[in-house]
Amino acid sequence: GAGVSQTPSNKVTEKGKYVELRCDPISGHTALYWYRQSLGQGPEFLIYFQGTGAADDSGLPNDRFFAVRPEGSVSTLKIQRTERGDSAVYLCASSPATSAHTQYFGPGTRLTVL
Amino acid sequence: QKEVEQDPGPLSVPEGAIVSLNCTYSNSAFQYFMWYRQYSRKGPELLMYTYSSGNKEDGRFTAQVDKSSKYISLFIRDSQPSDSATYLCAMSAYTGNQFYFGTGTSLTVIP
Fold it and tell me: CA of B57, closest CA in chain A: separation in Å?
């Protein structure tokens, strides 16, 4: 079946603008994760959803970052007042309830803040 | 100190060589250990996962976990040019919990 998809694949914005990044998980996967990966680094956890609710948002760096998953499927990561330091690849992953220790990643959205 | 340490390499080997990739960690609560492969400008792809200590083999890949030493390894036998990628170790304490990743090791297999 289809894997995790993310849109857009690339996003270039100006400092101070608002951006939304979308993630479509694998159908039927109940858990959804957002990570951020900077150049030469491993992914860093941002937030985890189980169903519609954020089960763990301890990785969100500050209140400019917010994520939703209103119907328990698609999720949107929202970044307000973007800063140059927000430039990174934003990865989304999903996992099924029966194998929650395995996460399947999407291709990522490359965000560049000028 | 980072939760997970991984030598970034780069590592360059001839085709057919055995490759050993390693990570160390500090959190004794970690129970789930994963290896991901990431090609340039792609998302990480799950290769193997192991629960607790022990070995697990899948084709040319073998994952080992030594919880007493807080050390995990991935061995690749008969390495191929298509294995050239960045290899990320990841670990978590509980099922459904966030993963902690290493920085990744860049591997090049030379034909």
Answer: 17
pLDDT in tens, A57-94: 999 999 999 999 999 899 999 999 999 999 999 999 99
State the number of CA atoms in the 13 A half-sphere of B86 facing the CB.
Answer: 23
Rounded to whole angstroms, the Cα distance separating A45 from B45 reads 16
Residue B104 is nearest to which of A33, A42, A44, comparing CB atoms? Answer: A42
d(CA B89, CA B47): 10
Q: Answer for the pair A67, A54: CB distance below 8 angstroms, yes or no.
A: yes
DSSP B40: T
Asked if A82 and A18 touch (Cβ cutoff 8 Å), the reply is: yes
A66 touches chain B (CB under 8 A): no
Amino acid at A65: F
Compute the distance between CA of residue A114 and CA of residue B103 in angstroms, rounded to an integer.
Answer: 25
Provide, as residue numbers in chain B, all residues whose Cβ is less than 8 Å from the Cβ of A106.
Answer: 43
Q: In a 10 Å sphere around its CB, with 0-12 CB exposed, 13-18 middle and 19+ buried, how is residue B17 labelled?
A: middle
At residue A100, the pLDDT reads: 67
**Residue B49: closest CA among chain A residues belongs to which residue?**
A102
What residues in A contact B32, CB-CB < 8 Å? 101
Which pLDDT band holds residue A1 (cuts at 50, 70, 90)? low
